[in-house]
Amino acid sequence: MKKAVIILVIMGLGLVGAAYYFSRESLKLMEQVQEDEHLNEVLLENEMIAKESAGEELIYGNTIIYQSIDLSKPEYAVINPCMQKFQASGELDALCLNTILDVVVDDFGEQGFINAVIGASIDYDNLALDHTFLDNLFSERSSLANRLNLVFLNRYRNPSNLQRAFDRYKTHLLKNIPKSLYQKVFEKRVDECLSAYEEIADQNNKEAFFEDIYFKADTQNSHGQYWKYTFWKRREIEKNDKIVYAILSEIKRHYDDQ
After folding, report:
1. Taxonomically, which superkingdom (predicted)?
2. Which of these three, 109, 124, 139, is where a domain ends?
3. Which of 23, 38, 62 is the last residue of a domain?
């Protein structure tokens, strides 16, 4: 077996929910036993320790570093020149990116890679959505990890692939993201997307509606303000808008029912 060296750091989600959940529950227990001034001092110290420990778990406990991957001779023959090219110029063509991604996903597993992409979208310091995630993905000078993440996500623009992956992994994902974490990181965006979809659906003239949205976004230089509408225009073009809406609706129902 040959080896190709691939330095790839991606944040996994597997323990994120658990670490946050247990740190939160431990703080609740500590609050319940506040009896006197001495205990309060001890609890304050323990709270600081718990927060530091949870933060370290979130940041370091889910880091996956691929230093080498075993390859068959045919895989090595393709991967090694790609990696040499990347190390020399920092550039990779679409064929190389997809070939490298196939090897990494095969080694890491599709579910593991999905976990990693979700985990990479979280701001661990503030337990919020990382607003730099998409900027980094689409940056012209993005890292190899971000380039592979983007190619991986592009595979799920196909509605059949998206539905298949959600059906296969939703039990795992929903189990590993407690409601408290969902509310802090994802709930606002999910609600905004769903409400925008329903607002668009109520329009008598959707094309005129979007023309107005894009005009406002361009003239006001405020595309971020209208992202929840343009998000659905892109989904419509990709013909996956109905499936995305159905998936987001199911996620919302899951957490609302808890």
Report:
1. Bacteria
2. 124
3. 62
Return the ∠ at Cα 152 (arms to 242 and 75), rounded to 5°: 140
Residues 141 and 253 in one domain: yes
pLDDT in tens, the chain (258 residues): 455 544 444 444 444 444 444 444 444 444 444 445 555 565 565 555 555 544 444 444 444 344 455 666 777 777 888 888 887 888 888 988 898 888 888 877 898 888 888 888 888 778 788 888 888 888 877 778 888 889 999 999 999 999 999 999 999 889 888 888 889 889 999 999 999 999 999 999 999 999 999 998 888 877 788 999 999 999 999 999 999 999 999 999 999 999
Instruction: Decide if 118 contacts 173 (C-beta within 8 A).
Output: yes
Q: List Cβ neighbours of 159 (8 Å cut-off, separation of 6 or more).
A: 238, 239, 240, 242, 243
The C-alpha atoms of residue 244 and residue 195 are separated, in whole angstroms, by 13
Query: Does one domain contain both 141 and 191?
Result: yes
pTM for this predicted structure:
0.74
